[in-house]
Amino acid sequence: MRQRREVKIAIIGGTGLEELLEAPERVRVxxxxxxPPEIAIGYxxxxxxxxxxxxxxxxxxxxxxxNYRANIWALKALGVERVIATNATGAINPSFKPxxxxxxxxxxxxxxxxxxxxxxxxxxxxxxxxEPFCPELRAVLIRAAxxxxxxxxxxxxVACTEGPRFETPAEIxxxxxLGCDLxxxxxxxxxxxxxxxxxxxxxxxxxxxxAAGMQDRLTADEVIEVASxxxxxxxxxxxxxxxxxxxxxxxxxARALEGARVRK
Length: 264
Ligand code: HPA
Fold this sequence. Notes:
Layout: E1 9-13, E2 22-27, E3 39-44, E4 47-53, H1 68-77, E5 82-91, E6 101-102, E7 106-110, E8 124-125, H2 135-147, E9 152-153, E10 157-161, H3 169-177, E11 182-184, H4 187-196, E12 200-210, H5 220-244, E13 261-263
Parallel strand pairs: 1-4, 1-5, 5-12, 6-9, 7-10, 10-11
Antiparallel strand pairs: 2-3, 3-4, 5-11, 6-12, 8-13
Helix pairs in contact: 1-4, 2-5
The site of hypoxanthine (HPA) has 14 residues, from strand 5, strand 11 and strand 12.
């Protein structure tokens, strides 16, 4: 029986990823924002890792209703320093194709009704998101994807829409003109909340479809089908990334709140 220490690495992903963990145990972590799904804690490449299925173990929560604050707070409470997310996306940039992976470097936020901060006052902060994803964790993910032979785009601007509907063709044309490469429904506010708690956050996006207006029609069935087809490669990349992530953090994420406070 291995001793449980602090869990420093978390994976947020879709269902099915629990199999990634050796000897998983599920824990319940209460937060001031409510109860997140049970979190599985186990081992990957000999390191303790927490696995949080963003939509719940039965995929019961839609993207616009997720309790992102409870999810991220719970990981911080477990001692997590680094969060690797997996996100399904559609391709807006025609040179990105279904079945490929991407490690985005920037975000455009088109969400509408989500609580996006832990700081609703009286504490006031303005967090810097000049580099919204952790550069160190991004590099680890890119190297891991390459070493597994995956087609991986090393930069991408990912748009996040409110959902749960897919986008209209006009919305996608507008997003393309604005410089977006990919579109999904879950990166916001996850990435920003992690930054507010000074956790590293990077995303391994997989592309399940061409965005609206670029293929016949969009179905959730297609997203699920491509996700299951890519499951083994995604797992392989995640295992490799966990193995390769350095013990100590050499990135600015741990000091994100320095200079950010307007009112304590
Ligand atoms: N749009 C938004 N979210 C998505 C898509 C899409 O085309 N594909 C997978 N998640």
